[in-house]
Amino acid sequence: MAGAGLLICGVYALHASPLFPDCDTPYDTFLGGTYEGGAAAGGSLRTAALIGIALWAAASISTRWLRRWLPLVVVGFILAYIAALIVLWNVSPMIWGPRVCV
């Protein structure tokens, strides 16, 4: 379950600030320019990690009572985390400003 959470958070982080962005800025690094603001903001990435930790803790605690439904708890964790990150992606520009290429 922790591995799935790390994978989902990693995908969010790579999508928020891709390794090879199409920025066309004069300050492109070897891997390309970088994104700032919105989902690429440091606060957004930390929030994504905290959401994952909180959902993982809730799922871990619930498995104590729901051992028979462990696969259902794991699937619920994954779906809840993906839904939370989709909401975070859409809400983050209102909190950290628009995502821009620098």
- Along the chain, the helix and strand elements come as HEHHE
Helix content: 55-70%
Domain count: the total is 1
* Proportion in β-strands: under 5%
C-alpha-based Rg, rounded: 16 Å
Q: Tally the helices.
A: 3
* Terminal Cα span: 35 Å
Number of strands: 2
Strand order within the widest sheet? Answer: 1-2
Arithmetic mean pLDDT = 76
> Shape, please?
elongated
Runs in which pLDDT lies below 50 for 5 or more consecutive residues are none
The SS-based structural class is mainly alpha
Strand count, sense and barrel status of the largest sheet are: 2 strands, antiparallel
Main attributes?
single chain, 102 residues, mainly alpha, two-stranded antiparallel ribbon, 3 helices, elongated
Task: Describe it.
The protein has 102 residues and is mostly helical. The chain contains 3 helices and 2 strands. Strands 1-2 form a two-stranded antiparallel ribbon. Helix 1 runs antiparallel to helix 2, helix 1 (2-16) packs parallel to helix 3 (70-96) and helix 2 packs antiparallel against helix 3. The chain is elongated. The N and C termini lie far apart (35 Å). The mean pLDDT is 76.
Summarize the structure.
The protein is mainly alpha-helical and 102 residues long. It has helices at residues 2-16, 42-63, 70-96; strands at residues 35-36, 100-101.
List the helices and strands and how they pair.
Elements (H helix, E strand, L loop, with lengths): L1 H15 L18 E2 L5 H22 L6 H27 L3 E2 L1
Antiparallel strand pairs: 1-2
